[in-house]
Amino acid sequence: MGIASQAEQILDRVRAAGAEGDLIIDQGEALSLKAKDGALEEHKVTSSQVFGLRVIKDHRVGTAYSEAADGESLAALVDQALLNASYAAVEAHEKILTNALKLETQDAQLSPDDSTSVAEKIELALAIEARLAAKPMVKNVPYNGVQDSVGERRVYSTTGLEARSKARMMHCYAYALIESGDKNAMEGIGQAARRFVELDPDRLVDQAYQNTFDILHGAAIPSGKYDVIFDEEILPSLFQVFSMMFSGKSAKDGVNPMRDKLGEQIADSKLTVRDLPLDTDGFGYALFDGEGTPAQALCLIQDGALSSLIHNSMTASYFNSASTGHGTRGPRSTLGVGVHQLEIDAGTADDAALQAGEYLVVTDLSGLHSGANPISGEFSFGASGYLCRDGARVQPVRGITVAGNFYELLRRIQLVGSVQHWNWERSAKMPSIRFTDLSVSG
Amino acid sequence: MLQVTKAEDVIDHGLSLGADFAELFVERSLTNAISTLSNQVQSVESGIDFGIGVRLVFGSKVLYGYTNKTEADELKRIMGELAAMDLRDPRVLMQAFDYSAPVEHHPAHRILSADADVDSKVAYLMAADAAARASSNLISQTRGACRQKEQRIEIFNSEGLHTTDARNYVRATLTAIAADGQDQATGMWSDGGLLGWEIKEQVDPKKTGDEAARQALVNLSAKACPSGRMPVVIGNGFGGVIFHEACGHLLETTSVAKKASVFHDKMGEMIAHEAVSAVDDGTMANEWGSINIDDEGMQTQNTQLIKDGRLTSFLVDRLGAEQTGFERTGSGRRESYKYAPASRMRNTFIEAGDAEFDDMISSIDRGIYAAQMGGGSVQPGTGEFNFAVTEGYYIENGKIQYPVKAATLISTGPAVLKEISMVGKDFSLACGMCGSVSGAVPTSVGQATLKVDEILVGGQA
Lengths: 442, 461
Known about the structure:
By secondary structure, chain A is α+β, with helices and mostly antiparallel strands. Helices cover 21% and strands 40% of the residues of chain A.
């Protein structure tokens, strides 16, 4: 029986119980390769599928999922979701969308055919490890890999929605462990592309080596307040950790500190933040959200003022507004909200202005989740990077902590750079931002 | 869960491709998760995880795949794709399966397949919420969670192993949020174990609510934490997460065999202060990190890792044993059929000492008492780690002065092991989920309160 027929049977059973529902079916295939000492350490081939059902009956929501696709398990999936709904509190705002849209992504663009053989991918994995291991002082390359994955999502509903998206991602990554005397360091980098030929192993190896070598002799700097620039990998991570500030769901739950600040100045006026899910250059591209609502561009912070929160249909109903197409739901999860791919508008500062005087470039933060409190905005992270002066590195820095309050930091933006950069995962595009007076402990 | 004849056929196919070793790991797990927001049920979720992991070993090369399908043709297709670059004449003959069931050390009674016990779990979370909110009108909200899982596994391998096991996990957590104007702070308490919902007879929802609220209120009144290198007293129970992350991971052959651990060549050497002895014990009855057998079918053990400061054992799985020459310790674990097994921790802790808490505090002129630790991470190659302090106090002139917030401890595993100078008597364990190469597995961390003579504290003051 085909997927569409299985979906229809499941939704028929939902209708027969007097309920509404939507069904997410995720399928995927992936190849993962890792090398060690010139041979393959991991060669992983996977195929997967999972059915995730949400039902609403008498304004009560229940969910269940199954990786088993036999008739008995899929019938149990419906029954379990209905049973779970019977325990839930009445939620007047959560509804199955009434749209009967037919949405489909373009495979040629997002999931191009790729005839690269497994042998070529293995050769790439081995070459990355070998080239990096051959660099001076590299003890080994403990983390490296090449991965090719194709994921497909289908969303069906009892009201006739049929949405399908499919995307391919190839990526490679490498981390070098360098030792010199009693000093050691491990750093790395990755690359992501939709086609194998777009991967650039030489650049990957050079970047991974340089990142590690440059930080090797890092040392702590005196404790104090420093101007800080988070690099293009770290700045998106920082915004992601505190992305709850945009969450309509957290606002509904009363824990989003920005819940009453729409229209208010919450950041320096040089900051404009958008969510751009339809930017096909990024891997956060989304045609529709977890409910099947078409995704759309949304300005979150305009010139420092909070211009919108992100909503799914439930939070939008609660706040008497419209869904912004930011519903998140997987087969195993309940309805939430989340950003697709954040972009920060380029500013006007050139490199000379950004890099004037003394400042700290942070290239790595550790403890990003454990050391952050999105409710209060407070954070304390382990950090490494470079102390710089007038554009030149003065010394590599390790063994420090940076601490502060993210929401206060947004008000201490001194300069926003004029060039946007994607992070390597191509999930966010941001310019360099220079923040002032961040507490550093060395 | 998988017909023996089918398993035999598939494994035999793997050996026919030239593999030295072939294994099937079959899993069917039921899960149930209840979430509450203050005094309302927010969601009840349930699911069925089912899949088969396929492992082939050619020499030192491990090939791994999985599928949700049970047809022999699909399992053979995966094997064929895995072995495409390594095909050779058969090297070994398959051994006939010899079924053995493990001895049950962790009996469970109120298991998920019998009854999800939703009403009883909701009542527990409601009681915890009520206790938290009764403790102060500054407690603005609570979030409760109760998760139960019943994991059934079946393992077949080409050496004739055929075994099954069932693991029943349950964990209940309450997070309290305290608010005073614009200031908000959180506190959390959690109980769990390798057993069924009968755990409710052993835990007290009032204690859960009181403790979550107490931490939130302490943090609400906390001041900025001082920064710099200073002595730190780390509380018992979850304080053991530092040993787990900073040292435990470095003793797994997953890191040792790659020489990605600073301890890879230190067997038999003093790697810690002589006050430190540590074990990884999978045998503790019904503890969260315990198992009957590991995910390669080997009976679990109690493994002494460090004795009086000297390194005495690594954590060794099947592959690690082949790569390092050390004996297996029953430490091959994985989150699910989606992961090849790797050497992982179980219940890992520093053994109790004889120091008194007051003596630790009074020995410090200026430092921190980290009563509760949060999560953190470690870089195995260098041993560098960071951990969040979720309930901390400033110590001055030998006395605890006031609560501090947003502190992070950073150091390296080898350094901190040598800085532990006093270990107390108040040993306890705490539950956690440990993420690593073979996914997230339940592990316990533990210790008695201990003193680290110097560590970098990152704060805002």
